[in-house]
Fold:
Amino acid sequence: MSESPRSLLSLLTLSPLGEDRWSAPTPAEGPPRLFGGQVAAQSLRAACLSVEPGPRPHSLHGYFIRPGRPDTPLELVVERMRDGRSFTTRHVTAVQEGQAIFELTASFHTDEDGSDWQEAAPTDIPAPEPGADTERDESPFGGFHATNPFVIRPVRTAGSGFAMHPCWVRIREPLDADPRLHACALAYVSDLAVVQAARAPGSTGMPFGASLDHAVWFHRPVDVGQWLLFRAGPVSNFGARGLARGTFHTADGVLVASLAQEALLRTSGRFPMPPGMADIKEEDLATMKPEDMAALWQRSRRTGAADGTGD
Structure:
């Protein structure tokens, strides 16, 4: 089964519904849940559209409240919290079928002069090979990667298995040189496999996991059309919650963004698989061909959406 990459630009093209209200695309194809990064990026885009030219996003903080559903209208409601000379604040509620599924607060900052310092960048991670943006990912997740708006190239070493992080990412399609648009694109990919990255070292199996809240700090202007090193790893696991922190660096080591995410990690049960995949053993899932896994995802969409967390 062959699938084409999804256009991020089309996902970020919002339709006005009224003053500070927007409709966002939710394509029917793909997994039975909306990708959290998509909803975060669309919410940030709605916030951007309510801010006068000039200020750029410097941070976002969001809460995932309910699973989002594909092919279901998504309304983004913007509240103008503050318009200052240096900082602007917006609150966005993403709504499906009358219920909030995601809440976001974004802050914008007008550029100012200041010092330029960062913690030393990692030096032991190889850069992507030439042609890495066109080579096929043969991991079990290759089918998903093939439909992602971003090219994803995990940096795999001996013993790392199919771990996603660290990985190199860059967007497939050209974007205008709009720093706000690139920040929205970075918000999209910032949710990639962070739940798995929050698990304690040495964890086994596939427990129930879901994003709870997510924060991104945009330190410097970013060009998502260039390779970015995305790293995320665990900080704490306790009480069925795990915290992960992550960073984005350019290929020459410039820190462009940092993130933190808390995830629900329940050891009773396994990660919520969609219908048609729930009975598959983990060892079989790990060896499944990408095209077979993609076919199962498509079949699951037709048989119904996966259950939410119930919390």
Summary: The longest helix spans residues 290-303.
